[in-house]
Design a protein that fits this description.
Belongs to the IlvD/Edd family. The protein is of the alpha/beta class. The chain contains 25 helices and 14 strands. The protein is globular, with a radius of gyration of 24 Å. The structure holds 2-keto 3 deoxy 6 phospho gluconate.
């Protein structure tokens, strides 16, 4: 199957741009692989510590020789999406024993709910918590006890953080195990309608609470297609979870069967032999592009314009917003789930779900098929639908969409282009989610109203000061300033203004939730105001232009006046709700386009300090591979190539070489 030329050329440029960082990452993973896991080498005292509470599995672990899986769990029971994980480790132990393997919980990581902290001080910890999760994952895995890794996580920062942490142990196989979306409650559009009525003072707080509780009503992921569900889609698109496992509801029989199979499969790919599948090999440039294609084809959450570069970077891969923009020009929009439509993720699953979507995108040449996945049959397996027959979990080829108002194929897409654009100009670079915005609102030209706190926007709205055409600028909201909170609480307010017939848009260096939609928004503006970005020069009343069609964000201010401006002074950093603990992470963050992470920026400095030895190890390994006619963990190509990444055929061959040898 030929890959679409835009997908192919974007992939090639990512491979070229990443050549040096990727080869150093792979050299480090090869070094890890050669060291091997510590468990068999641990001194008796060390090992006894690790096995002391392993109960029924102790004898097996003492004997050694079997696979021991490490679970990193983000369980807490305040977050509905993560609540089902409470029972997972105990069930996983039983499933592993069926395969002669064992399971230990390597560690727990925090999981924040952006729904709970929306508009609260706690939201300023949210993006930063991703790095904390990555570090927590690494801490759990650093005990060296495991042959394979099971990652339990669903929501916004959690999946990216788990992956970023696990990728530093990329010599080990890893698999994500989802828990599924909650069943449908009050439709999301209806919830949003009641919120808007409340913002206008037309219903009281008890009517609002009733609507909210009917929408968020039980265990599982929120049903809209926000960041959490986009996460699940991307991980499946990358082949890091079982085919068709993202969107079955919790506590269903099929979910249970998928969990069992996931554990069995992780045991298989964690054993030495021809089926051994290290995470570092699975997450390559092509897998990252597949995730980006999925993001665009589904009009997924803008948060992933930050998370995907961060995940990629943790694997030594550099993807930027120009890549997303180029892909968005070629990838058609194939789904319509709220906020891009009125259906929810359960309706999307019912219409055929990810297997139907993957089949359609594959047929259109949008997805790389030659990536290494957790599934035995490779990428073709991801175009297959799961079902239960009795107790047996079976797969068959995906059927066509049964609801074309929700899910379509590439012959008749909802739009010819994907859901996201890069907007750039005199105000910097930002992201604009086009998929939920009406066509006649893709360009907004209006005077600015400038704010440094979202509460002040709401106060101005309540005072009637925003009843006009306006571009609301909310700045000092980037990773360096206050950790880049989501500003989704502004959505109903701005939607009210828009529905009154005004031309309204938002421009901010902060984030919006994946649930935000119909109001035009240029977000994640880089450089952020705190780091000297031109957004700090905007004054009230300046004419601004945001145009998704041309990809522009401009201040229509006389150049001489603009250049003479002094940047606005930043507000004091937040105190309270633990925000001061994160001062270090804020002050060292790099741009949202690079992932907005102090941890990754500093990690690269350390990698650079080891550059000479890593490069030497890489080239030595490549030399050995060529001499011995096999490949090392790195997927290094044979002689004649100058980097770790060669053309697709060579790469597939290189992988085969590695797998046979492992
Ligand atoms: O999924 C995302 O993108 C999120 O970041 C989580 C959201 O912020 C909230 O869950 C928003 O929920 P609503 O306020 O009901 O629209």
């Amino acid at each position: 199957m030929t890959v679409h030329p835009v997908v192919a050329s974007v992939t090639e440029r990512i491979i070229e741009r990443s050549a040096v960082s990727r080869r150093r990452y792979l050299a480090l993973m090869e070094r890890n692989r050669q060291k091997g896991i510590s468990r068999p080498r641990l001194a008796c005292g060390n090992l006894a510590h690790a096995l002391a509470a392993s109960g029924e599995d102790k004898a097996r672990l003492m004997r050694g020789g079997g696979v021991n899986l490490g679970v990193v769990t983000s369980y807490n029971d305040m977050l509905s999406a993560h609540q089902p994980y409470a029972r997972y480790p105990d069930q996983m132990r039983l499933f592993a024993r069926e395969m002669g393997a064992t399971v230990q919980v390597a560690g727990g990581v925090p999981a924040m709910c952006d729904g709970v902290t929306q508009g609260q001080e706690g939201m300023e910890l949210s993006l930063l918590s991703r790095d904390n999760i990555a570090m927590g994952t690494a801490i759990g895995l650093s005990h060296g006890m495991f042959e394979g890794v099971a990652l339990l996580g669903i929501c916004d920062k959690i999946v990216p953080g788990l992956l970023m942490g696990a990728l530093r142990f990329g010599h080990l196989p890893a698999l994500l195990i989802p828990a599924g979306p909650m069943t449908s409650g009050l439709p999301n559009k209806e919830k949003q309608r009641v919120r808007q009525l409340y913002a206008e003072g037309k219903v009281d707080s008890s009517a609002l609470m009733e609507a909210e509780a009917a929408s968020y009503h039980s265990a599982g992921t929120c049903t809209f297609y926000g960041t959490a569900n986009t996460n699940q889609m991307m991980v499946e698109m990358m082949g890091l979870m079982l085919p068709d496992s993202a969107f079955w509801n919790p506590s269903t029989r099929i979910r249970q069967a998928l969990n069992r199979k996931a554990v069995h499969r992780l045991v298989e790919i964690s054993q030495p032999g021809s089926d051994h599948r290290p995470l570092a090999q699975m997450v390559d440039e092509k897998a990252i592009v597949n995730a980006a294609v999925g993001l665009l084809a589904t009009g997924g959450s803008t948060n992933h314009a930050i998370h995907l570069p961060a995940i990629a970077r943790a694997a030594g891969i550099c993807i930027d917003w120009s890549d997303l923009d180029a892909l968005s020009g070629a990838v058609p929009l194939l789904t319509r789930a709220y906020p891009n439509g009125s259906a929810d993720v359960n309706a999307m699953q019912e219409a055929g779900g990810l297997p139907t979507l993957i089949a359609a995108l594959s047929e259109g040449g949008m997805l790389h098929q030659d990536i290494l996945t957790v599934s035995k049959g490779g990428y073709a397996d991801y175009a297959c639908r799961a079902r239960l027959e009795g107790e047996a979990l079976l797969y068959s080829a995906a059927r066509a969409s049964s609801d074309r108002s929700v899910l379509r194929d590439t012959r008749e897409p909802f739009r010819q282009d994907g859901g996201m654009r890069l907007v750039q100009g005199s105000l910097g670079r930002g992201i604009y989610k086009t998929s939920a915005v009406d066509d006649d609102r893709q360009t907004i030209e209006a005077p600015a109203a400038v704010f440094h706190r979202q509460e002040d926007v709401i106060a101005a709205f309540k005072a009637g000061k925003l009843n006009r055409d306006v571009i609301v600028v909310v700045r000092f909201q980037g990773p360096d300033a206050n950790g880049m909170p989501e500003l989704h609480r502004l959505t109903p307010t701005l939607a009210v203004l828009q529905d009154k017939g005004y031309r309204v848009a938002l421009l901010t260096d902060g984030r919006m939730s994946g649930a935000s939609g119909k109001v035009p928004a240029a977000i994640h503006i880089c450089p952020e105001a705190q780091s000297g970005g031109p957004i700090a020069l905007i004054e009230d009343g300046d004419m601004l232009r945001i145009c998704a069609r041309r990809g522009q964000i401009e201040a229509l201010v006389e150049p001489a006046i603009w250049q003479a401006r002094q940047p606005a002074l930043p507000p004091l950093p937040g105190l309270g709700t633990g925000r001061e603990l994160f001062t270090l992470m804020r002050s060292r963050s790099d741009t949202a386009e690079k992932g907005g992470s102090a941890m990754l920026a500093a990690l690269e400095d350390t990698m650079d300090l080891h550059a000479t030895e890593l490069d030497k190890e890489f080239f030595d390994a490549r030399h050995d591979s060529a001499r011995l006619g096999h490949d090392a963990l790195s997927g290094h190509s044979g002689a004649g190539h100058t980097g770790p990444v060669a053309g697709p055929a060579d790469r597939a061959g290189a992988r085969r070489g590695r797998v046979d040898h492992a």
